[in-house]
Amino acid sequence: MKKTITLIGINFYPEDTAIGLYSTQMLTFLAEKGYKINVITGFPYYPQWKVLDSYKNKPIFYKEIINNITIYRYKQYVPKNPTFLKRIIHLIDFSFGAFINSFKIKHTDLVIAVVPFTSTVLLGWLLKKRLKAKLWTHIQDFEFDAALQTGVSNNKNRWLTKGLHKIESYLLNRSNLVSTISLSMLNKLKTKTKSNTYYFPNWVSQDHFNSISNKSHPYFKSNKFKILYSGNIGDKQNWLFFIDFLNKMANINNIEVCIVGQGAKKAWLSTKLKNFDFVSFYDPIPLGQLNDLLCSADLHILFQKDDVLDTVMPSKILGMMASGKPSLITGNSQSEVSKIINRSKGGIYLQNNLAEVVNSFILLVSNNKNRWLTKGLHKIESYLLNRSNLVSTISLSMLNKLKTKTKSNTYYFPNWVSQDHFNSISNKSHPYFKSNKFKILYSGNIGDKQNWLFFIDFLNKMANINNIEVCIVGQGAKKAWLSTKLKNFDFVSFYDPIPLGQLNDLLCSADLHILFQKDDVLDTVMPSKILGMMASGKPSLITGNSQSEVSKIINRSKGGIYLQNNLAEVVNSFILLQSNNNYCKLLGKNARDYILKNYNPNIILPNFELTLKNLLKKPILLS
Fold this sequence. Notes:
- This protein is of the alpha/beta class.
- Helices cover 40% and strands 18% of the residues.
- The protein has an 8-stranded mixed sheet with strand order 3-4-2-1-5-6-7-8, with helices on both faces. The chain has a 6-stranded parallel sheet with strand order 11-10-9-12-13-14, sandwiched between helices. A 6-stranded parallel sheet has the order 19-18-17-20-21-22, sandwiched between helices.
């Protein structure tokens, strides 16, 4: 029987940033695993510091069930201008409401208290005692240390510091387990408690961050060099340094600065920067737009105060790095963020007294955008791959390249061809081919990896041959351009992609498959279309780099002709194939035999399962 888990924390769904996002994703994962989940939380208010409109008219105590998670909310006081005193009232009010809600929990096996607020640990301990449960405290932010470091409390008296730390340690020692989100914070945590500790970092979902699939975000309106700060506009950032930085940038014409967020310092900062016409302020955006925003930037910036060291680990740094764009960050050189940036080599981390170096770096990046982007992407890629227990890829050339990118274990896991889908004996003639002419087929993505200029030159040479038809089946970024270029070729037809059930008929109806690749496409991709082309039992005429994986497969199988992008050689090879039916049949048979032997799912998938089982047998090491 699955256990019951109760989380206490002020931030939760529908907040889709910072602590609220991570708590929601964590509990959604557990709920999907079958655990019974309760949440004691507040009304959603962050980062706007304003209760969401959809919750304004709800009762003070409000219960709802979302995705099998039972949520007990209290409408806490939310100040419009969160000064220190108002934050204290905010904390006390939430804690009072959460205490009342805790009595609505009649059974739980585990209580998870999320800090901030530290008061959630007290509430969790009381619930633990009452229901004989266990207590896990998860620290996203060392609340007391952060308040003292950043001056939020405006009171650094020795007795206050000592008193707060004693209360904190007392509460942490009531926990069965205490976790936190960075290694520096973990080391600090071990000085505060005798309880067991655990490294539990925040995470980045590849579904949310993808620098290939992003669209340009409307917050960036020009072709200038785009500098982005996205996150809370609060006391932990060094806004005075940021203003000095912008003063140095004022005479540079080719930059724009975009500040996206809310926080206690936003009104003050926007007033200070009102005369900077290259700076724009925007409200926070939904999580669904975040990938587009982060990937639209050319540079991310984060200027932290020097005294913010091991009390916080800004979650925004994960998204900044996952965007594939470099970051320029300042702060204490001993901080966790400094270690991550320097370890990953995905940006530059400086101390706050290096304004001239920062300015020089901005100029360097704005004039060498592609170089920095490439370096940043590769460093971040390697950093993320090294976090995997196993990394696989689909071709031997890609596997060799992969081994230069990661220290993780690697595995050759090719795509495959099912004999059920490709059978040149059982196929019917596909309606896309309408004549008895020699049928040439390209089927696949019509994008940037193919050498369409060479393809056009090839077709110009074919224009005087009467007994051919060319069929192009697919979609892609270059389709409209290509169809315009070929509109006067009456032997060329374009069609949309077809369902998988028709693919065998289409591929087997062709007399020749063609694929003209660019020379610089070498070991970064392995076109899956090549498997279907060869499995059809028809020959292929392919061009590209002679060192590519496709070249090796075609030459090894003797299932087609692979050439470099030499037009005369390609034309001569085509004429040979068109005029020699027996030669075409031999190449086609070779191709099919090779594919069914080397890309057979009955071999590949059992090997995959065996590798999976071996991986699962290995113990998971916890820091």
